[in-house]
Amino acid sequence: MYLNIDAQKEMTYDAIVVGSGISGGWAAKELTEKGLRVLCLERGRDVKHVEGYETAMKAPWELAHRGRPDNQSAEEYWAGIRTGYTVNEEHRYLFENDSKNPYLETRPFDWIRAYHTGGRSLLWGRQSYRWNEEDFMANAKEGISIDWPIRYKDLAPWYDYVERFAGISGSKDGLDVLPDGQFQPAMELNCLEKHVKSEVMRKMGRTLTIGRVAHLTKPQSIHTALGRAACQYRNMCMRGCPFGAYFSTQAATLPAAMKTKRLTLANNKIVSEVLYDEKKGRATGVRTIDQNTLEVKDYYAKIIFLNASAIPSASILMNSKSSRFPNGLGNESDQLGRNIMDHHLGVGASGTYDGFEDQYYFGRRANGVYIPRYRNWGKDKRDYVRGFGYQGGASRSSWGRGVGMEGFGAAFKEEMTEVGGWNMGIGGFGEVLPNENNRFTLHPTKKDKWGMPLVVFDAGYGENERKMRIDMKNDAAEMLEAAGFKNINAYDNTKSNLGIGIHEMGTARMGKDPKTSVLNAHNQVHACKNIFMTDGAAMTSASCVNPSLTYMALTARAAAFAVDELKKKNL
Amino acid sequence: MNRREALSRVALLMGGTLSAPTLMAFGEGAAMPPTAGAAFSFTPAQQALVAEVAEHIIPRTSTPGAKDAGVGPFIELMLKDCYKAQEQQNFLDGLADLDAKATKAHGKKFMETTSAEQVEILKQVEKETTELMKNANVQQVKVGDNVDKEVVDSKKLKGTPFWRLAKELTLFGYFTSEQGATKALDYVPIPGRYDGCIPLKKGQKAYAL
Q1: Domain enclosing residue A123, as ranges
Q2: Looking at residue B14, what is its pLDDT?
Q3: Please, what is the end-to-end C-alpha distance for chain A in angstroms?
Q4: Is B208 exposed, middle or buried (0-12, 13-18, 19+ CB in 10 A)?
Q5: Phi/psi of residue B125, nearest 5 degrees
Q6: What's the average model confidence in pLDDT over B154-174?
Q7: Cβ atoms of B177 and B70 closer than 8 Å
Q8: Which of A4, B73, B106, B162 has an alpha carbon within 20 to 30 A of A19's alpha carbon?
Q9: Coil, helix or strand for A309?
């Protein structure tokens, strides 16, 4: 390859961040704010804040199929269609077309991707919970997998830091199982949810609280300075929020990084590998392929943050082969690509409630209720380890109830315009244990149109998850029953696959020992200290709470450490 | 990413938390014919018939009806783009059945009978559909917080029957149309706030989203 020195200089930055999603955005913000010149490489197109949100202001009737997926999209988005919602018309344009980005499944895996500026930070459910102290110790206590190299206290100040900036609304509940944070004012429960809250506490001693969600309810100057405003309660979040009310790269971290004038965002750059200098024993940069022109270009930096999301971040290292690392960069432990975790869901209960007929609500709350874990907590002991929480909500039914009802005509129409009865659903979010046989590999010969080897998934639920699901289903029904619900329908969609939670984790886990882990306590690749990974790949176990807030905290912590080490000339 | 909120978005688009099934699932191994795709269309006579059936389900009252809201063309578009060949065929068969029933009872096509006669025929179709689904052991199965599936014995029922398709698509098409959403329901594009617990006002319509 021809490279002149000037060109190489032009392609040289202090840091390269691969990926612009939730964790990549944070890496870009933290590193630029600490004075580094940063190149953020995004494999997809640029989706600009507000103007890039194509459907954000559309009324239902402005969508040809009123939001429903059509047959052609269902074929093209063959993985996305399994979720039941990502292929819907109003936000499909922000998800990846699976036919253009194929992958292989030894065991089925629902891999839901969003390749564009902001990535899935535009599409996430925004539920934001701290892990608790036990979450970091459970592996060691139970002798499962390996121990985390960090504890809650290592992350606590960073949770504080990212919560204040992101803007997490929620209520302080004073629970060990769900540590409180720096919250924006909580959203309100509706009257049926308030009733259920008091009943499950009174009869079962369980907590129901409003979801802790990354939405501004009372923006502070730190938020308004970036152009962010309070939630408008449209609940159209997955189209992109023109108010910047929920936390996304576009609304929050990208404008903060841009303010420093030290960020360069390069779109359409697929990172194929990390460049490794055997003499220096460190990574020198990354190789990219332009997704449109296929042009190959190398970029150089002192440090590299891999934030491409769990599977691609680990893939990049697997694909970075040298004589020093014949099985992939930093893969001496053979743990790269292993221990894929997710949260298992698709199990819970719903029911109808007679009462509160004269009560309604106003606005579409972009949030639900949360019932924190209570199983295997305190004195409770089950025939499985770990636990689960529930997310759900109560609402009054609308015309949808008419589909299964008999009748038609003027009176039927009138009834359908009226407010229907109350119902409520709660769905379990269960912890998946790390298991090194749940893994992905790169196919030896099959490649995508950019010449990158195809990802092959071989991962599934284990016995612990299956046992847990029994409680997840029965407990949900019991709680609704305790609160006086009727027509309770308990469900367990046993056909759901790993991946459906869209919380891929664990493919380059953190650990104390380079023999059994890929990353150290500061998210550095053990064997190549100037590569950091702070997305889902880094997770050593999965907890039962949503992981994104933890990615943010890990990223901010690792970025501070990296800059410190750079100053000390340790990197 | 959180499923609950996203699933409730689906439900909201479908008219609130669904107490009614939204998807028909068929037993293991049931071979669904591929979509007829672009080939599907109604004749002008079928178009008129579909619009008439939709208007019977959601007639014009003090608020616009299915015809005002363009439900007929919407049903044709949805069947063509979003449904499989089996459902498309069921729908066409259902339309032919309406004429057959009208001819048998009144010696003329459905569109030539009186409105009262048409209502009687549709009531008969509804009754038959209820029986049909009962015989196929329809079971409502929860697949998500707000998403239900109906599982049926696929040997006894091939695809969603005509009347269920007509009714679901009419309700969906009407209440998500500009006419239906803004005139028959309470459409609030930007609420700006959330009040969790407020008295239901007299005459309050359900929210459109």
Answers
A1: 12-568
A2: 34
A3: 27
A4: buried
A5: -60, -40
A6: 91
A7: yes
A8: A4
A9: coil
| Residue A491 backbone dihedrals phi, psi, to 5 degrees | -135, 155
Other beta carbons within 10 angstroms of residue A494's beta carbon come to 10
Per-residue model confidence (pLDDT) at position B31: 40
Q: The CATH number of the domain where A321 resides is what?
A: 3.50.50.60
Q: How far apart are CA A425 and CA A429, in angstroms?
A: 13
| Mean pLDDT value across residues A530-534 | 98
Average pLDDT value over all residues in chain A: 96
| Distance, C-alpha A459 to centroid of its chain | 19
Which residues in chain A are contacts of B35 at CB distance < 8 A?
A: 71
- Quickly state the pLDDT bin for B148 (edges 50, 70, 90): low
Q: How far is CA A355 from CA A72, A197, A417, A423, B12, in A?
A: 44, 16, 19, 10, 22
CA distance B38 to chain A (A): 11
Structural domains of chain A, count: 1
By the 8 A CB rule, do A319 and A272 touch? yes
Structure token digits, residue B113:
């009978």
Whether A269 contacts A43, CB under 8 Å? yes
- Cross-strand pairs, B152: B26
**Residues in B 168-207 with any Cβ partner in A closer than 8 A:** 168, 171-173, 175-178, 181, 184-185, 188-201, 204-207
Q: Tell me the pLDDT tens digit for each residue of A493-510.
A: 888 899 999 999 999 999
Phi, psi of A371 (to 5 degrees): -115, 105
A232 pLDDT more than 50: yes
CA A245 to chain centre: 18
Phi-psi region of A317 (alpha: psi -120 to 50; beta: other; left: phi over 0): alpha
What is the sign, positive or negative, of the torsion defined by CA atoms of B13, B14, B19, B21?
Answer: negative
- Provide, rounded to the nearest whole percent, the portion of chain A with pLDDT above 90: 95
Q: Cα separation of A245 and A171, whole Å? A: 18
B29: pLDDT strictly greater than 60:
no
Cβ density class A345-361: b for 16+ within 10 Å, e for less: bbbbbbbbbeebeebbb
Using the Cβ of A411 and the Cβ atoms of chain B, whether some distance falls under 8 Å is answered with no
Q: Radius of gyration of chain A from Cα atoms?
A: 24
Domain for residue A3, yes or no? no
Rounded CA-CA distance A330/A525 in Å is: 6
As given in the structure block, the two tokens for residue A539 are 């997770």
Q: Is B2's Cβ below 8 Å from some Cβ in A?
A: yes
Q: Do A365 and B3 touch (CB under 8 A)?
A: no
Other Cβ atoms less than 10 A from the Cβ of B172: the count is 28
**Mean predicted lDDT score pLDDT of chain B:** 83
Q: State how far the Cα of B153 lies from the Cα of A32, in Å rounded to an integer.
A: 60
What confidence tens digit (pLDDT) does each residue in A233-246 have? Answer: 999 999 999 999 99
The verdict on B38 touching A (C-beta cutoff 8 Å) is no
- What pLDDT, on the 0 to 100 scale, is given for residue A390? 97
- Residue A65 has what pLDDT? 96
Q: What is the pLDDT of residues A246-274, one digit of tens each?
A: 999 999 999 999 999 999 999 999 999 99
pLDDT at A157 over 70: yes
B 15-34 near A (Cβ less than 8 A): 15-22
Q: Is A141 part of a structural domain of the chain?
A: yes
pTM summary value:
0.94
Rounded Cα distance between B172 and B161, Å, is 17
Higher-scoring residue by pLDDT: B39, A399: A399
Per-domain residue ranges of chain B: 3-208
Q: In this complex, which of B15, B189, B198 lies closest to A400 when CB atoms are compared?
A: B15
